[in-house]
Structures are given as C-alpha cells and as structure tokens.
What we know:
The protein is mostly beta strands. 9% of the residues lie in helices and 46% in strands.
Amino acid sequence: MLRIHSCLILLGILAIQLLSCAGSRKKTPAELQKLSFPITVVVEHEITGDVLGARLNRPFGLAVDARGLLYCVDAGNNRVIQFNSDLKPIREVGGPGSSDGLLDGPTYVVVDNELNLLITDEGNRRLSRFDSHLAFAGNVDFYDSDDPLKFGFPSGIAVTEFGELWVADQEQNRIAIFSHIGQFDRFVGDFGYSGGQVQSPEKIVHGSHGQFLVCDAGNSRIAVYDEYGNHVRNVSDDDFDYPIALTTTGGGLWVVDGSTGRLFFFSRRWQRLLVIGPQLPGTGAGLSKPSDIIALPDGRLVISDTGNDRLIICRIINAEQ
C-alpha cells in the first residue's frame, strides 16, 4: 500500500509539472498579437523630395502586393511609383495624358491575385490596368456614352479573389461593381445618410469574411457591406470628420482622417482603442490632408501625407492587455 501511495504522489507531482509547462509555453506571434494593442506609432522614416527624377507631389493611394512591393500614386506627377521591400523606388508607370498607359489625376491603386495593378484614373474616367511587369494591359471605362450620367468619377477601388471590382463613385455617391473582365454589373448604395447610403465615398477595402469596408467620408463613418452588396453596419466615431482611408491588420483596423489628420485604431469588434495625431512622434510636421494608409508585411504602416508631399513609415508600439 505504501508503494502504491508513493506512486500516486509521484504521478500527481508529474501532472502538476506538465500543467505548469503547458501554461507557460511560449506564445505564437498570432497569440501575442491578440494579447496586445497599440498605444502609439512612431515615425521611423520619411520619403520625400526627388523620387526617380521628379519631386514627390501629392502622394495619394497606396497598395502592397504579395511580393511585399509597395505602390504609391504620385497624383501631382500623374504616375505610380513602385518601391522594393526595402522601400527604395525602382520603377514608375504613367505620365500625364489620355493615351493608353497615361494618367490624368490618378487617385487609388490596388493589386489583384495575379499581381496586376489597377489604378483609378479619375480625370480620364477609367480604370487603368498594368501587369506584374508594369506593362500596360488595358482600360475599364468609367463612362457610358449611351447614359452620360450613369457614372461620375472613380475614387477608391477594391478587388476580390475572383477579380470582381468595387469602385467608389464620388460624384454619383455610390459603388459601381464590375466583373473580372471589366463588364459593369450593378450599383451598391446611393446618395444619403440612411443605412447603406453613402456620401463622397473614398477608399474601399475587401476585408475578411468577404466584407467590403467603404470609407463613407461625407457621412463621417465606415460603411460595411457583405459580398453581395447588402449593408451590414456602419462604424462611427465622435472624432471622425472625413475618414478617407483605412487598412486592416491581424489585430484590427486603422483609419486615417483626411480633414483632421488624426489616426485611429479599432479592434476587430469595432472598439476604438487609440486615436493620435495630427502630430506623430518622430517627425516635426503633423499630418496634413493624409489620403491613404497601408500595412506592410513586417507590420509597419505607410501613410500618404499628401499635404506635406511625403510618405511616412511608422512603427507600431504595442502594450500587453
């Protein structure tokens, strides 16, 4: 009996040790991300001045492809700049004009699953497509000669994994949806403030679970739609004025306000956890008319600080909950 009792004690001690080891195991990066939240951002680097032979002039839309390359719409120079993963400029496309491959007042940019680049060419009322080598690959017209009032001017753009395009129409205050071959399909939303209506829509992001997040800037909110175009919810904040752009990360949602220059972070449950700006640590000038924000593969943020003719790269400082 004594031997059995001793064995039971040893087994109990072993069980406690195993439970202790299991509870103290090293957490994965994904688990750590869930246990932390941002308390500020710090500007690490700025891109300004001469870029590939021309001074950066009103940088606007941003995109990152699967290779980690960054794309920036340099609206004032009617071009799109490609940066490598070290954020060094390597190539450009565009130039002023209306011929194929040229741009007139470009705004936003997105990259599809095949690494094709799609640019909203506002002045030419079209979407310009470039392949993964930045060779011109065609246009999608944002104009109907049979119905001149059907479309206005394209703004934000998102693309699904199947190539379907969602394009914000700032003038007509709605979203136009095109098939993967560029054929117009239907509209989502219309002018107004009620659920599902929008005013001056800006950037669109295709988020998780097939949802689309639309910067309903004129209504000072984010409008959320499902993959079929049904309105799901609005995300509002008392400090929103003109929420022009957003980007999603594993931990939540970053929103930048084009009017106030403020930066917001929301949890995946739409709870606001941080607001900062227009002055950010690490830089002398505050954000002025920022127009877009994107997350890099390494977790840093890039912001188009349009009013200051610069891109700023920010490191996120987290605190454990």
